């Protein structure tokens, strides 16, 4: 199976581990690791670990972009890069062993030029037909085209698309009828504002074109809403090391299972197991098949 992970802003990710981290004080690190990250990167990495033929399409720019490209040369998935003059961002994750806290310092990427966006759209249009599934990965800052996912979807089949985004970038895709929309409860509330009920919010997205809506809320129960049913999922309690990348891992797991022929309720459960496995590891976008196998029976569906 071939799955395309389409995002715009990869990151040079520094994960810094502390015995304890106290804001406003001098904190000495126990360990520092550097990796390529970002939502499309994490999703493609997890898909590769699961055994899919995954491909990432993303921008890369400047010295940080060159470093990200070199880091990903050693990983087992293909990268299609669109060159940009906008420097690739650096993000830092601060982990405290004492209380298990995770602090994320996220830079915003400078906006690519209009020519860069045009090249990206042309590249996507040229390659998209080769893939069984497509994942659109990431929320978008206000300085980039808010309907870019919809513009890309106009040249592909919505039945094979999972959209992992929110607000205008997500809403604009609904006329193209994506098969699955995945977001967390906070993102859902920012996207559908005329009700506070997550079930009603999901049904409104379906009424406007979403094939199904998957809703996560971290370690708490998750929900899948389809036109005819509502499924609720319990999440196994685990010792979490780093939740960064868990949402991306959920999207990867759903897409992988659907590409293999699983029904959507079971595919969503598999995605939740992937997201939970990611949180059990320090590096973002890393899952372990043996952990996933142990977690799946612990996820109760009602």
Automatic annotation (TrEMBL):
Keywords: ATP-binding, Kinase, Nucleotide-binding, Transferase. Its EC number is 2.7.1.-. The keyword Kinase applies. Pfam families: PfkB. GO terms for molecular function: ATP binding; kinase activity; phosphotransferase activity, alcohol group as acceptor. Residues 20-276 form the Carbohydrate kinase PfkB domain. The keyword ATP-binding applies. Signal peptide: none annotated. One of its GO terms (biological process) is carbohydrate metabolic process. It is an enzyme of class 2 (transferase). PANTHER family: 1-PHOSPHOFRUCTOKINASE-RELATED, ATP-DEPENDENT 6-PHOSPHOFRUCTOKINASE ISOZYME 2. Belongs to the carbohydrate kinase PfkB family. This is Hexose kinase. It comes from Tichowtungia aerotolerans.
